[in-house]
């Protein structure tokens, strides 16, 4: 029986299986690393300042405010989003107006009233409220 030498590696039948095993281990480690570093959604719930056990779902609150904004005359569509800032989350309601140019002041006033109403509804929470209006000229 001949002793195995370093130059005989290509004729050995075990090395493709060893390479396959190494590839599988590296694949599993790579997938685990990707899973651990996946982007995480910001929590949409925030605790109240008075009681840390009570929390509010900001996404639902933002969606309800956007639905109310969209139902106002002069607003064609509205969307809501919660942006997670490091200091405080921001509830952003964006609307597109389909009103003629002379009534844009009324739409802006409605947006300001909605912002004040949302801010008072979320009073006691570390949250900022923004209402944005995209004013487009009627065609």
In one word, what is the shape?
elongated
According to CATH, what is the topology of the largest domain? Alpha-Beta Plaits
How many distinct folded domains? 2
Order of helices and strands: HEEHEEHE
Alpha-beta content class = alpha+beta
Query: Main sheet, how many strands, which sense, barrel?
Result: 3 strands, mixed
Contiguous uncertain segments of 5+ residues: none
| Tally of alpha and pi helices | 3
Number of strands: 5
**Main sheet: which strands, in order across?**
3-4-5
Quick check: average pLDDT? Answer: 80
Helix content: 25-40%
CATH A-level architecture of the largest domain: 2-Layer Sandwich
Alpha-carbon distance between the two ends = 92 Å
Broad CATH class of the largest domain: Alpha Beta
Rg value:
29 Å
Task: Report what the structure shows.
The structure is a single chain. This protein has a 3-stranded mixed β-sheet. Strands 1-2 form a two-stranded antiparallel sheet. With 139 residues, it is of the alpha+beta class. The model has no long low-confidence stretch (mean pLDDT 80). The protein has 2 domains: 8-36; 45-135, Alpha-Beta Plaits, CATH 3.30.70. The longest helix has 22 residues, at 15-36. It is built from 3 helices and 5 strands; from the N terminus they run αββαββαβ.
In short:
This protein is an alpha+beta fold. It has three helices and five strands. Strand 3 (75-83) and strand 4 form a beta hairpin.
Keywords:
two-stranded antiparallel ribbon, alpha+beta, 2 domains, Alpha-Beta Plaits, 5 strands, three-stranded mixed beta sheet
